[in-house]
Design a protein that fits this description.
The chain is α+β, with helices and mostly antiparallel strands and 491 residues long. It has 18 helices and 23 strands. Helices cover 38% and strands 21% of the residues. The longest helix has 25 residues.
């Protein structure tokens, strides 16, 4: 592992993750710094942009303390939580805390957008339903509720772009992150004049938009002084967290999809053309790959469902794991592996946090269905694993209805560690599933984009071919797939 190195910076919801990748694609070092989340009212979530910057500086200082030389860093890529609203004044100073993607205050404004433009128009232009978490409803809320702040807004940006501003002194965003604002013409890869005029938003507050691997600027003297990075180091535009994760998984061409089983679950696929679900059940965005798009379904409680089961019903297994020095999830899934596919009639609906794709219903709730005296805890564990797989299939079915049909999936996140869960997902989807040699998701994709921007590779596709490697392979069993087809219909 030798230089040159490329840095990937991920401005997450709980902390900033910064990784260092060498020219061979190996992660040399990583560091995470957490920061506070503020909830001043029920349903509100905010963060201080300056907290993100402090965290990034601390992470970089850990690199230098380990002996990494700033002169060996040749490119920087940015990624982070999408949809958040950061507003700055004419001196490029934040006017208030950032309003985050999971903030729910903007219900009336989201409804107003639909009423003004009509659902068909807003979805056909932006590829998405204007959810409360998206950026445009936040701007309208600010205009209606904090006029003294709104009147001083010089520019708005997305969370990762604040780090870009601090590094380069420039306000820019990329086509992927801009796609999550409900102000972007996703088909044409530019701000929608029609939407902006209809919502009476000044074009002056919009940041310039460029493609993800394009250079947004170079580290300034001030940025260098604060971070230790070499002045003049190129910083690329980057991408939102899911677009960057798609790059990190190698899902940059049609036929290859990715699945992330973290707390939530994401099914993602690249598309050579702009495709969208007419009812807005899927997300459609410009990809971080120039000239490409991606479609994506999101379920809210994937790994979160298994964690809930562990916490509420898994106390004996937790005790056993503690005594034996084992992973409690390994114990639970080992028990589940003793149950045949279909859990002998037990079904689990994983709607513990409501659901996004395909229902868009915050009031949806979880269900165990079909329980009898015959069934045991191990049946319930397997039902949870299968229920999450069915939820992922909901997104896959919608994808295929738009004409996007991945022939394989790369799986990431905590759920990818389970051999049984990977097998269930492969069988439910009827597609082979691969794990990743590097499972760092968004931050890894950001570093790859940084390498492209720095000139190490001419295109994102070339970088992915050289750097992104799959590992374990799980084949779909055709007989199990037929069995799961019938259970999926009941689900």
């Amino acid at each position: 592992m030798s230089p040159p190195y490329y840095v990937g910076i991920d401005v997450g919801t709980t902390g900033a993750k910064v990784i260092l990748v060498d020219v061979g694609g190996y992660v040399v070092m990583q560091h995470v710094e957490e920061y506070p989340l503020y909830t001043p009212r029920l349903g509100w979530t905010e963060q201080e942009p300056e907290d993100w910057w402090i965290a990034v500086k601390k992470a970089l200082s850990a690199f230098w303390a380990s002996g990494i030389k700033p002169d060996d860093v040749e490119g920087i890529g940015l990624t982070g939580q999408m949809h958040g609203l950061v507003v700055v004044d004419s001196h490029l100073k934040p006017l208030r805390r950032a309003i985050l993607w999971n903030d729910q205050r903007t219900g009336p404004q989201a409804k107003e957008i639909v009423e003004r433009l009509g659902l068909h128009k807003i979805i056909s232009l932006t590829g998405n339903y204007p959810y409360t978490g998206f950026t445009a409803p936040k701007l309208l809320w600010l205009k209606e509720n904090e006029q003294s702040v709104y009147s001083r807004v010089s520019k708005f940006m997305l969370p990762k772009d604040y780090i870009g501003l601090k590094l380069t002194g420039k306000v820019l965003t990329d086509v992927n992150d801009a796609s999550g604002t409900s102000l972007f013409d996703v088909s044409k890869r530019k701000w929608s004049k029609e939407l902006i005029e209809e919502l009476d938003i000044s074009p002056d507050v919009l940041p310039e938009v460029i493609e993800s691997p394009s250079i947004r600027g170079e580290v300034t003297a001030t940025g260098s002084e604060e971070t230790g990075l070499k002045p003049g180091t190129p910083v690329v535009a980057g991408a939102g967290d899911q677009g960057a994760a798609g790059v990190g998984a190698g899902a940059v061409r049609e036929g290859i999809g990715s699945i992330n089983v973290g707390t939530s679950g994401v099914v993602f696929s690249s598309s050579d053309s702009y495709r969208f679900d007419s009812r807005g059940r899927l997300h459609s965005f410009c990809h971080a790959v120039p000239g490409k798009w991606h479609v994506m379904g999101v379920m809210l409680a994937a790994g979160g469902s298994l964690r809930w089961f562990r916490d509420v019903l898994g106390e004996p297994e937790r005790t056993t794991a503690l005594i034996a020095g084992l992973d409690v999830y390994d114990i639970l899934t080992q028990e589940a592996s003793l149950v045949p596919p279909g859990s002998e009639g037990v079904l689990f609906l994983p709607y513990l946090s409501g659901e996004r794709t395909p229902h868009g219903d915050p009031n949806a709730r979880g269900v165990f269905f079909g329980l009898s005296l015959k069934h045991t805890k191990r049946h319930m564990v397997r039902a949870v694993l299968e229920g999450v797989a069915y939820g992922l299939r909901d997104s896959f079915e919608l994808m295929m209805s738009t004409g996007v049909s991945p022939s394989e999936f790369r799986i990431m996140g905590g759920g990818a560690k389970s051999v049984l869960w990977r097998k269930i997902i492969a069988d439910v989807l009827g597609r082979p599933v691969y794990t990743m040699a590097v499972d760092e998701g968004s931050s890894y994709g950001a570093a790859i984009l940084g390498a492209v921007g720095a000139g190490a590779f001419s295109r994102v596709d070339d970088a992915v071919k050289a750097l992104v490697k799959t590992q374990d392979f799980t084949e779909a069993d055709s007989e199990n797939h037929r069995l799961y087809d019938s259970w999926y219909q009941l689900y």
